[in-house]
Amino acid sequence: MAHVVDDRIVELELASSDEEDFYLLPPLPPILNEDNVEEDYNELQIFHPILGMIQRIEHVRIHNYVENVIRNYNNIDFIMHFRLSREVAYHLIDQFHVSEIFTSLQEGGRLKVTAEKHILCYLCFVGHESAGYRDVADRFGITISVLHKIITRVTDFIMSLAPNIIRYPTADEKEETAFYYRYEKEFPGVIGAIDGSHIRVDKPIEDPNSYINRKQYFSLHLQGVVNHNMKFIDVFVGYLGSVHDARVFRNSPIRNDLRELCGDNYYLLGDSAYPCLKQLIVPYRDNGHLTRAQRNFNQKLSSCRVVIENAFGCLKQRFRQLYHFKLRDIIRMVRIIHACCVLHNMANAREVEYFEAPMEDEYPDIEVQGQHIEQRINEIPRENETGIHIRDEICRQLNI
User: Fold this and answer.
1) C or N: which end of the chain has fewer Cβ atoms within 10 Å?
2) pTM for the full model?
């Protein structure tokens, strides 16, 4: 059990006898200086009188984990534990060390958690589905409340980098992506692929049915656009799981930016959930009467847009908290998901070979199975599909 005292979380592990009887204690006064986390936790003893008894509360933590363990990892072990190469991680540490978010902590001259520990704690947390707050806090020798602050600070820091890491491509970058699709996939004019993915969450307390997606589990929606290298050029995250991809797209900034992004020469590729627009080409709907040329077109388009599905797969395989996010604060989860997309762009896609196998995360929630949930799919009016003639022309070119 836990007592919350002045925003501090103190976990009480009580054993008053061999039968392990447990008692509810009255609130304890503040006992930890959360900013000074270099204290020796093995020497921490708290005595609290209850009915004439004295209880000793102690947590066992790993001492000097960063100095004595992490710094001795070889490069592969480091990637497996922290999901980024040592070079990328320590470049991030160097940037964080000089950021205003970190330098502001040094006011007053008190000993703070190092920039190195901030970033490594964060990467450990987001990188492993089994890494709960207690696990990470104990490993790095800090309290849960300090870890909560670390995650907030590092998320804010990474989000400050986002505009320079996830951005629309330059003219040269567009031509590079279009060149790849033209000569490797025989599909002209493509500068990206768009799709949505769902991040599983625990059943929310408020309005839980709005989070149930068509696969029958609670989720948050992540819309992404990637280039041929599986790097995000745009992300839009935060809609509830019940909201259809087309509605998310219609309300996302990139819908209004399509003309600016693609101009007259380029377009994105989407699946059949999206409207067919001048700058967004989607497959022909299979009504059972598609021509051979149309089927060939759909097959080629599918082979091009598989890159976005692979990107989402790599994102979750690297940052495994995204298989099932178990936090309760929705806004906090949305920001961390976005931050993981930023880190994905900084990482080397080939590192995925060092990670654990992908997990199956699209199974129905037991709480949802059997329920009739009103999905918000048929409410969406179709946009005027201005790209149909462009699709027909591409289809004709592909089958000359």
Assistant:
1) C
2) 0.83
